[in-house]
Request: fold
Amino acid sequence: MAQADPGALTRAQRRKAQTRRSLIGAAQQLMAQGRTSVSVLDITMMADVGNGSFYNHFATKEELFEAAVMAVVEDHGELLDAFTEGMSDPAQMFTQSFRLTGRLHRRYPELSRVVVNHGLSVLSTADAGLLPRARRDIEVAVAARRFVASDIDVALTVVSGAALTLALLLHDQPGRDDAATTDAVTAHVLRALGVSEDEVAALIALPLPAWD
Reply:
């Protein structure tokens, strides 16, 4: 998520921005735990901010939870965009994004739980949701004749279903190798998009970008 230059903000603005981040962080924790029926007071106590400050940022709990979902979507999308920047092959971009997404479930388990517990809203939230990004990548790959998909909506159904059930599998089986499992699911998705076996193997074998 784009951040303003800290040096250009006043102390009050920085404090307000920190309060908002704390509220969103608390909401994400609660969503990961499936605890969305809590009170505003419970949320502000978890965020360690004043109860009255909640309404300086959000009108309702529902508005906060929506912002928390959007924050997950934006952070995830920006991370994938950064990792795939400079790639010219749309099939490679799609493959790398899917493989990285699967690995992020273990790297960021709490945020992954938000995806699992609120999958449809995470996938389809406005234009910044994960489905619009996947649609963009698939359409470009089809236009470049790297994928075959006569119906983009059907292709998106396959991709989104695989992504969500992969997340569930990795959470339900914590001992499972996330990298190997993610690559196996990615291979099935690529086959569904008309990629040949040789090309599937080549795309899966590409090294992933390093992260901190």
